Amino acid sequence: MITSVQNPRVKAVRKLHEPKWRKREGLFLLEGTALVEEAARSKWPLEAVFATGDWLKRHDLDGMIVEEVSDPVLSALSTLESPEGVVATARLPGDAPLPDVQHGSLWVVADAIQDPGNLGAIIRSADAAGADAILCGPGTADPFGPKAVRASMGSVLHLPIVSVPDLDAAHETARHADPRHGGMRWIALAPRAGKSLYEADLCGPIALWLGNEAAGLSSDALGQADEVVTVPMPGRAESLNAAASAAVVLFEAVRQRMRLRG
Predict the structure, then answer these.
(1) Where is the RNA 2-O ribose methyltransferase substrate binding domain (predicted)?
(2) Domain 8-91: top CATH class
(3) CATH of domain 106-261
């Protein structure tokens, strides 16, 4: 049982609170019962699991080795003010290439989405809608940071998440994909002045392009998009946040595709 917060293993895990150490060590944190159990169900490679005695009395990870720690040590390992009793370190996925464009491909492109909670919620909605991949462009929060992982409710474990240093190049590659599938259309989301979401065709291979929470997509990005759409807002709110907008558009795409399939 680990009882000292000065233990070298505790110090090593605490470093994973910072992005540079996650990248350097190739590891990220899973905090709480739901995330750790989902990783175990998904056969995600866990490097280590730390839990309090009380947690171990109530849970079983199918024979997985769990290191018992004191309550103060668990608090030191976690980024949460009130941790649930278990923290695991998990292996980061390797760099993923752009996925192949298929007839019904649905990608979500996060372009400078800076809030990790928003990013995690977007990943969760994309997973629920059956999206095929998340592309994270420059300036986007770390999808494997603790807050993003928690907000995704484990969906970071289900979807390919592709780090894309050059979205322009990715756009061109996807647009000129296998002509049998017609290439991929990039649908930019703008708070106003675009085509109504409910008049847009969201069937076929598309990438939903989401911009920064405050500034939205750049004028260059909007000019490069194959189509710009806007969520109609008859109420008095000025805008929806990025995660809410993404969910609305994703499930309109789901509705259209289900209707097309009959």
Answers:
(1) 29-96
(2) alpha beta
(3) 3.40.1280.10
